[in-house]
Structures are given as C-alpha cells and as structure tokens.
Design a protein that fits this description.
single chain; alpha+beta; binds uracil
C-alpha cells in the first residue's frame, strides 16, 4: 500500500504540494469516489485513479527521455553544479530515477533516465552490444582513412583499446559515430587520436531509442509504450 499523493506525484505531472491541493479541491477520484485525504493508503495496482476525470496510469517504473543540454552534469546530485536530475520533477528524484550511462558535461542529446535497474544493467552491459549513435563536429577535415581506422578498431596512445566502431563522414568536418562501448570520453578520444578534435558532440540514439527532435535542449518526456517495447527487446 502506498500514499495516494506519492503515487500521483510519481507520474511527474504534479508535485506533492499540487496533489494535496487537487485532493482538497475534490478533483481526485479513487475507484470513482472522491479521495478523502492525500495520505490515504491505496494499492496503486488495484485501484483506478482519476484527476479531473482523466485516468492516471500507474507504472511500477518510470522511463524518461531527456534532451540533455550542454553545461549540466550527468549525475544524480552535486553540491556545486547542476545535474540532469535538477531538470526533472522532484518526485522522480525521490523515486530513485538515475541516468543510463553518462554524457560529458558539454555533450548534448539523448539521455535515458529510469528507476528500472534491470533495464539499466542490460543497456550498459558490454554483452548486449547496444549501439550508441553520435553526431560530431571536428576541427580538422575528415578523410576516408578515418572511416577505415574506426572500422578496424584502434589502440590509443594511452593504451585504451577501442573495438571496431562506425564512422560516417557527413561533410568535411561533420560525422556520425556509432559505438557499442561507452568508455570515458570515448568519441572525443578516438577522433582526437585521428587528429580531429571534437568541437561539438550530440548523442542521437541509444539502441532503438532515438532522440525526439521535438524536445528542445533541457526538455524531457516519458517514453511511449512503443519505445519501451523496442528497448526491452
Ligand atoms: N563520448 C564522449 O567523448 N563524450 C560523451 O559524452 C559521450 C561519448
């Protein structure tokens, strides 16, 4: 059994404070009856909750697509700098939402956050070879030999062994990179090794999940049923 306000706030659509007001204003129905109090105990899997007549679905886990902007850390908390969790409703932080993998502070693009630890583990495990697709701009002209070097895999000067990866040249200084690994600064390090330092980096996709281009940097939404189905496959 869980508190009604916690369950409703868990959707991320209202804060706990707002839920309290909704309940007091008689706008929340539990199985068709006006909810008595925000701290009423309910079994979220057994009852139907409606707010202003609209059914509020209960899901055990939350899955969020964030268009990470540059300038925020991929972390759940930091004493000095803002993190991706600061961009999301507080109720999700309390639910234990955490990023799946990491983007550098200056990298933008697709970041998935969830409290489903099992899925996080599968998406990050090297065993499952989940492709990560990046768009990069670089400070020197790309050449076909760069594509070949990525395809062959490379060992960087610092000893980092990078498995074969995809590089597709879009224009002299723009490319798409596909990696199945996620080592620290890997795209930047691989391109820098080829003499093409990265000036801008954005993640476009992770496995079957593509960044929704309708999301401005800093905006987020929950995954659709279809996206979640594809991801779990
Ligand atoms: N590779 C990088 O260098 N940075 C990122 O943020 C992600 C992949």
């Amino acid at each position: 059994m869980e508190r009604l306000d916690k369950v409703i706030a868990g959707t991320g659509r209202w804060s706990r404070r707002e839920v309290k007001d909704l309940v007091r204003q008689g706008r929340v129905l539990v199985d068709g009856q006006c909810a008595a109090a925000p701290d009423e105990k309910i079994d979220p899997e057994q009852v139907e909750i409606r707010v202003d007549g609209e059914a509020v679905g209960y899901a055990r886990f939350t899955y969020v697509m964030l268009h990470k902007p540059a300038g925020v850390l991929t972390a759940t908390e930091d004493s000095r700098q803002s993190t991706v969790l600061d961009l999301l409703p507080a109720a999700w932080r309390k639910k234990g939402l955490a990023p799946v993998g990491r983007l550098d502070k200056d990298t933008e693009g697709l970041l998935l956050l969830t409290d489903d630890g099992g899925l996080t583990h599968r998406l990050l495990s090297p065993k499952y070879h989940v492709d990560k697709l990046y768009y990069a701009r670089v400070a020197a002209d790309l050449e076909p030999s760069d594509e070949e070097a990525f395809a062959a895999g490379m060992t960087l000067d610092d000893g980092l062994v990078c498995r074969p990866a995809g590089l597709e040249i879009l224009s002299a200084r723009e490319c798409l990179v596909t990696l199945q690994e996620g080592k620290f600064h890997q795209v930047k390090r691989m391109l820098a090794y080829r003499g093409k330092p990265v000036t801008y980096l954005k993640r476009l996709a992770m496995g079957p999940l593509r960044l929704d281009e309708g999301l401005a940097p800093g905006a987020y939404r929950t995954l659709t049923e279809e996206e979640l189905g594809l991801l779990k496959k």
